[in-house]
Design goal:
alpha+beta; two-stranded parallel sheet; about 40% helix
């Protein structure tokens, strides 16, 4: 966060990293009773197609929601306040 990163959900090239960690989060949360999973959407990337980032986010959120559903969980999409948006599309 201090370096300006605001999530992986819409970040091209980070699909594998994100998806590998979905199951880890579910496995960690289940015995603890955790059912809410924060998903940081990610910054707009300079030079990246914004529509492609949004489509990637939909795919990743769908994967996360399907995994969370296995334990009765829900994925929460994290917004950012406009004072610290750094091109974060959800404010």
């Amino acid at each position: 966060m201090a370096a300006g990163e605001r999530g992986l959900v819409s970040r091209p090239g980070e699909e594998k990293r994100l998806r590998e960690n979905i199951d880890v989060a579910i496995e960690f949360a289940e015995p603890l009773g955790g059912r809410g999973f924060n998903a940081f959407y990610g910054n707009c990337l300079e030079g990246a197609d914004r529509r492609a980032q949004d489509e990637l986010a939909i795919e990743n959120l769908s994967s996360a929601a399907t995994a969370a559903q296995r334990i009765g969980g829900v994925v929460l999409i994290e917004t950012q306040n406009t004072a610290d948006s750094r091109c974060y599309p959800l404010t």
